[in-house]
Design brief:
alpha+beta, TIM Barrel, 36 strands, 17% helix, 37% strand, GH, hydrolase activity, Glycoside hydrolase family 97 catalytic domain-containing protein
């Protein structure tokens, strides 16, 4: 049920007024729009404290706006809806905001119009631009984004950093020494109890932005990644500012999906999130009977058999299954001589396992993207891992959209890798987009991340949406001999289980061999019980520089994951998220007393406890380690 009605907010909306305000539904956040000598600017106040001041707004077009604007009119509304996600962090979501639209016209002989739309939520704000249909403008290019986030102090910040370790902590003004653009999400700590994050929502038609430190103190400016062609009637993506009292509140937020349109896929019954086996990192593993895994059908059948017996939903067949991935002659409508693709798909279907097939731009463009995706669907594949897009800017955004829509047409889910367009809440509109490698994925880029990076990525990259980090290593020793492992992997097996709870993704890709999981069957019991859809996501505690603890609910069952940096620590876990007056059995998968992320990675312990909503436990996390708990009610 939707409720839409007009609501006057803040200052009077007279046509010649130069200032307008919109408040969040709970009145704790206020956005004020001003025209300062004809220049559009905005301010943001949180609980009476100004955090953004005199931040410039606007776009530079090839048929440029004049430097001075006047306000023509404004309108406002309040909107509330409740909807259900096919899969996401939270299943049931409320979308409640107040919106203000200010219509501007530049002061020139041939005046051109620009709309700025603001939305105020209880957990953040957003704004975007619209160029309405008008006589003096038809087609144009967006060449620059003047949008600023000008803060009231030199706040500390951290940011995503593509497939490298995240940046930070740094001060805003220290960013002047960074020569390249800064990726979003960018998280800021304004005070002990105030955290902010900058990102983008609804990236569909125009180039996405990054951030750059400009000449103003305490200020980041949006930097679009190349010019974007457009026509009047367009609207840009949303520039967003998450607002919370802790970094965990930013991660819990539904702001991005709320800024996206409802699903465009009417029948979503075929869409399924879950856990996957993976041939790429297993390649080269030799088991005790002498069998060596390769990119071939016998190996794939072993992976399918394990998946079928252990509640694992998919097998991801990665690059080279149809020939060398960067060769112009590799045809993705045919498999290489080591793989019988039709037999693989037939066998997987018989065993109840879905197959995800790799594809990149080279094969898609040469052999026809729609032709290739139709062939995948005809074979019976359930998804695509799409890698190495060769374009950038608007072209890459449009290519991403084309892949998603064609995959939806042929009932295929899609996982984007290799510097994809950022997740932007579009999982609501296109729920077949189940993850992206918008992070440093484990053992990728020829090296593995260290424990502090997974904690950082949970608090930063994951704000953008589902990320594919390829967690779940069990056999750490001797991995370097495999062709696609490359180097030493730091971590602990208990932490690997915890990552599968902490890291939100529509596809959790397990990188290890079945034999390693079988050797630690008591530990893998946790993975076997992970549901392919959760109902709720809670950050129980943590900090970007130290640890994170997360609880996720599916029905009446709970899964808890906790991770620390290189520092060992003891954390206090309060079970007050459980239903009162109910007893639960808790299965704990923990670091052993002597576990260490470098020299004793595979040591772990398990135990069972009876707990309730009043239980408080002290959990000891080893250096670089973690803890995972499965909690079920006692009937």
């Amino acid at each position: 049920m939707k409720f839409i009605y007009i609501l006057l907010l803040g200052l009077p909306f007279f046509a010649n007024s130069q200032s307008y305000q919109v408040n969040s539904p709970d009145k704790n956040i206020a956005i004020t729009f001003n025209l300062n000598k004809g220049t559009p600017t905005y301010n943001v106040v949180v609980n009476g404290t100004k955090i953004i001041q005199n931040s410039k707004l606007g776009l530079k077009l090839n048929t440029a706006f004049a430097d001075e604007f006047k306000a023509l009119k404004s309108s406002s509304k309040e909107f509330t809806e409740n909807y259900e996600m096919k899969w996401w962090k939270n299943k049931n979501i409320q979308n409640h905001y107040n919106e203000l639209t200010v219509s501007l016209e530049d002061v020139s002989e041939n005046p051109k119009k620009l709309n700025i739309i603001f939305r105020a939520y209880n957990d953040g704000i957003a704004f975007r631009y619209g160029v309405p249909k008008q006589e003096n403008l038809s087609e144009f290019s967006i060449e620059k984004d003047y949008s600023e986030f000008s803060f009231t102090d030199d706040f500390t910040w951290w940011s995503a950093n593509a497939e490298r370790d995240n940046l930070g902590p740094l001060s805003i003004n220290a960013a002047v020494t960074i020569e390249s653009s800064i990726h979003t999400p960018l998280v800021l700590q304004a005070s002990k109890n105030l955290y902010l994050a900058i990102h983008e929502a609804g990236i569909y038609d125009f180039s996405n932005f990054k951030l750059r430190k400009n000449g103003k103190p305490d200020t980041f400016q949006c930097e679009v990644q190349g010019a974007s062609k457009a026509k009047t009637g367009m609207k840009t993506s949303w520039r967003t500012l998450f607002i919370g009292t802790s970094p965990g509140m930013l991660v819990e937020s539904n702001l991005l999906v709320n800024l996206n349109p409802p699903s465009k896929i009417e029948d979503t019954s075929w869409i399924k999130s879950g856990v996957s086996m993976w041939d790429w990192r297993v390649w080269g593993f030799k088991n005790k009977d002498g069998f060596t895994y390769g990119l071939n059908t016998p190996s794939h059948k072993k992976l399918i058999d394990f998946a079928s017996k252990n509640n694992v939903d998919f097998l991801l067949m990665d690059a080279d299954w149809y020939g060398p991935e960067f060769s112009d002659n590799s045809d993705p409508t045919k498999s290489n001589k080591e793989i019988n693709i039709e037999e693989n798909l037939r066998y997987a279907k018989e065993k109840g396992v879905g197959i995800i097939l790799y594809l990149n731009d080279i094969g898609a463009k040469k052999f026809g993207m729609e032709r290739v995706l139709k062939q995948f669907s005809d074979w019976g594949a359930v998804g695509v891992k799409y890698g190495f897009m060769t374009s950038g800017g608007q072209e890459k955004v449009l290519q991403t959209r084309k892949v998603i829509e064609l995959c939806a047409k042929y009932k295929l889910m899609v996982n984007f890798h290799d510097s994809p367009i950022p997740p932007s809440g579009d999982e609501r509109t296109w729920p077949n987009t189940f993850t992206r490698e918008y992070c440093h994925s484990q053992a990728d880029a020829k090296y593995s991340y260290y424990p502090e990076t997974v904690v950082s990525q949970a608090f930063i990259n994951m704000i953008s949406g589902p990320i594919d980090m390829c967690n779940g290593w069990y056999g750490f020793e001797g991995n370097e001999v495999r062709p696609r492992v490359f180097k030493f992997i730091p971590g602990t097996v208990a932490a690997e289980n915890a990552k599968l709870v902490v890291i939100f993704s529509g596809l959790s890709v397990l990188p290890d061999a079945p034999e390693n999981y079988n050797e630690k069957a008591d530990l893998f019991d946790f993975v076997k019980h992970i549901p392919n859809q959760f109902d709720e996501y809670k950050v129980l505690g943590g900090d970007i520089e130290s640890y994170i603890s997360v609880a996720r609910r599916q029905g009446k069952n709970w899964f808890v994951g906790s991770l620390t940096t290189r520092e060992p620590r003891t954390i206090t876990l309060n079970f007050n998220f459980l239903e009162p007056n109910t007893k639960y059995k808790a299965f704990l998968y923990e670091d052993a007393p002597d576990t260490h992320y470098i020299n004793n990675r595979e040591a772990y312990t398990t135990q069972e406890l009876v707990v309730n909503s009043k239980t408080i436990l002290e959990l000891k996390l080893a250096s670089g380690g973690g803890n995972a708990i499965r909690i079920v009610p006692i009937k």
